[in-house]
Each structure stands twice: as C-alpha cells, then as structure tokens.
C-alpha cells in the first residue's frame, strides 16, 4: 500500500477497511511533548508526507486526534477558576482518563467514533463541532500527557516525544494563546509560571523515557520526520502484504472446499 519508491512522499492509498469481513486495527502512534513543542505540527507533517492532508475525512487513512478533546467537564466552581487562569489544565486530573481509554479502544477495534473539539475560550468541550473518526490505517494521538497514564501508554504501537526547549515553547505559546485562545499576556504568563512549567517538569518531561523516538526541535527536524514516515510506510506495507496473503489463503481454501 505504501509507495516506498517515492522518496518525497510515502503515499498511502485508500484501502479496504474490511479484509475477509474483519476490520483492520489501526497502527496507533502516541505523540507527547510539552506545550507548544510542535506536536500538532509534527502530526500534520507526517500526514502530509503520507499523502493524507488534503483527503476527505471518509477517505483518509491517517488521522490525528488531540488529547485536549478529553479534558473533563469542569464544575461551576472550577469554571470560575479557569476564567481567572487559576485552574491547572496541565495536571493529569484535568483529563477524563476513562473516556480517553475507551475511545482509543474503540478506534483500535475499527469503530467509527465521534470526538468533541475543545474550545479554549470557554474552557470546555464543544459537542457542536465533533470530529468523526472513520476506521483508518494510522491514528496519531497527540497531547502533553499521552504517555502519563500507563493503561493508555500501553495501547501505542509507536511512541514519539517532541523535544523542544522551554524558551522556544514559551515564545510560541504566548502569541498562540493571545491570538487563538482568547487570553491576555498577563494571564498567559501567570498560568505558565503557576501551572504549566511545574506540571511539565513533574508529569510530562518524565514520560520522555517511554518514547521510542525523541524528536529534537520538532517539525524543523526533517530528518527525524522522514525516518518516522519511512518506518510507518514499511510497517503498513508489511501489514498489507500479510493481509493480502490471508485473503489469498482464505480464497484458496474456500475453492478447495467447493471441489
Ligand atoms: N518548527 C516551528 N517553527 C516555528 N513555529 C512553529 C514550529 N512548530 C510549531 N510552531 C508554532 O508554534 C505553535 C505551537 O505549535 P503546535 O504544533 O500547535 O504545538 P503543540 O501541538 O505541541 O502545542 C503554533 O503557533 C505553531 O504554528
Ligand atoms: N482550557 C484550557 C485547556 C488547556 N490549556 C493549555 O493547553 C495546553 C495543552 O495544549 P498544547 O496544544 O499546548 O499541547 C496545556 O499546557 C494547558 O495549559 C489551556 O490553557 N486552557
């Protein structure tokens, strides 16, 4: 399925989601790293190089999901704190671990799932704008704490950690949060110093040791991204050869039975 002769793009072709009536289980990749390290950008590059970025959702064989879609609903008191930048969104308790685990399990079973998007302006899930995940060959799951929860960590077939220095991350986070997430400078810096930085050191950074591949400098590291894309392509090609062989074997044994 993956065209490994094409060095610029290891393009996946839309496959048959079911082989011999069995739904394919996707190759699940976890992408962790500190805030604004470039996790989403790395996922976008991987998708582009696999020839997937421009595809329609139903055709896409590689999809990317954000862990932010699994923040838990806040109580009214927590909402008030969040509006004053006094809620810790970088602590593992801010996430709905069970929902995250159950959703990933369903994705691995090949189910079509719907995931809410996250609204950083209201600090809540947006069920009006859901992302529909159709059965895919490769699923990228990115977030600050995707390797923190052991049960979830164990689901990944490949684990990547985007390692970008903290000055660069803060320099990216400030304009992003002001321009895209409706925050002001004072709120961004207070939240960063009170919660984001200490939680990165306590919960996110220690999970680097679980990564199979550490990507220094994030999306700028084209060599690392090329190697990862090539590896994914090889795995998918091997999976497809095995599935093709199973199909041929099944067809041959049914022909034998008919004679
Ligand atoms: N290599 C890079 N060079 C310059 N800006 C970048 C780079 N990677 C990401 N960014 C910018 O930094 C911000 C955070 O990047 P993003 O990929 O969303 O990080 P994360 O998903 O880790 O929060 C975005 O505004 C993005 O455009
Ligand atoms: N309501 C929220 C929810 C999360 N955050 C911050 O987002 C960061 C995670 O997203 P990245 O794209 O940066 O990985 C995390 O550090 C939270 O502090 C927020 O500010 N408000």
UniProtKB/TrEMBL annotation:
<dbReference type="InterPro" id="IPR000764">
    <property type="entry name" value="Uridine_kinase-like"/>
</dbReference>
<dbReference type="InterPro" id="IPR006083">
    <property type="entry name" value="PRK/URK"/>
</dbReference>
<keyword id="KW-0418">Kinase</keyword>
<protein>
    <recommendedName>
        <fullName>uridine/cytidine kinase</fullName>
        <ecNumber>2.7.1.48</ecNumber>
    </recommendedName>
</protein>
<comment type="similarity">
    <text>Belongs to the uridine kinase family.</text>
</comment>
<comment type="pathway">
    <text>Pyrimidine metabolism; UMP biosynthesis via salvage pathway; UMP from uridine: step 1/1.</text>
</comment>
<comment type="pathway">
    <text>Pyrimidine metabolism; CTP biosynthesis via salvage pathway; CTP from cytidine: step 1/3.</text>
</comment>
<dbReference type="Pfam" id="PF00485">
    <property type="entry name" value="PRK"/>
</dbReference>
<dbReference type="GO" id="GO:0044211">
    <property type="term" value="P:CTP salvage"/>
</dbReference>
<keyword id="KW-0067">ATP-binding</keyword>
<dbReference type="GO" id="GO:0005524">
    <property type="term" value="F:ATP binding"/>
</dbReference>
<dbReference type="InterPro" id="IPR027417">
    <property type="entry name" value="P-loop_NTPase"/>
</dbReference>
<feature type="domain" description="Phosphoribulokinase/uridine kinase">
    <location>
        <begin position="28"/>
        <end position="223"/>
    </location>
</feature>
<keyword id="KW-0808">Transferase</keyword>
<dbReference type="GO" id="GO:0004849">
    <property type="term" value="F:uridine kinase activity"/>
</dbReference>
<dbReference type="GO" id="GO:0044206">
    <property type="term" value="P:UMP salvage"/>
</dbReference>
<keyword id="KW-0547">Nucleotide-binding</keyword>
């Amino acid at each position: 399925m993956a065209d490994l002769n094409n060095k610029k793009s290891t393009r996946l072709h839309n496959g048959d989601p079911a082989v011999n009536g069995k739904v394919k289980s996707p190759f699940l990749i976890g992408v962790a790293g500190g805030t604004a390290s470039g996790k989403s950008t790395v996922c976008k590059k991987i998708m582009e190089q696999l020839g997937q970025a421009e595809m329609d959702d139903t055709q896409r064989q590689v999809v990317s999901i954000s862990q932010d879609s699994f923040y838990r609903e806040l109580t009214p008191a927590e909402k008030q704190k969040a509006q004053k930048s006094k809620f810790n969104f970088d602590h593992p308790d801010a996430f709905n671990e069970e929902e995250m685990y159950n959703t990933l399990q369903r994705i691995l079973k090949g189910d079509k799932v719907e995931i809410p998007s996250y609204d950083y302006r209201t600090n809540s899930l947006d069920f009006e704008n859901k992302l529909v995940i159709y059965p895919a060959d490769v699923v990228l799951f990115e977030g600050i704490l995707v390797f923190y929860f052991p049960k979830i960590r164990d689901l990944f077939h490949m684990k990547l950690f985007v390692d970008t220095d903290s000055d660069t991350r803060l320099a990216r986070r400030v304009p992003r949060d002001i321009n895209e997430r409706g925050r002001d400078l004072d709120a961004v810096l207070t939240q960063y110093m009170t919660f984001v930085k200490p939680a990165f050191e306590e919960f996110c950074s220690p999970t680097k040791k679980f990564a199979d591949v550490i990507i220094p400098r994030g999306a700028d590291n084209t060599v690392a991204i090329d190697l990862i894309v090539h590896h994914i392509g090889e795995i998918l090609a091997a999976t497809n050869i095995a599935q093709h062989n199973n199909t041929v074997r099944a067809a041959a044994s049914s022909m034998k039975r008919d004679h």
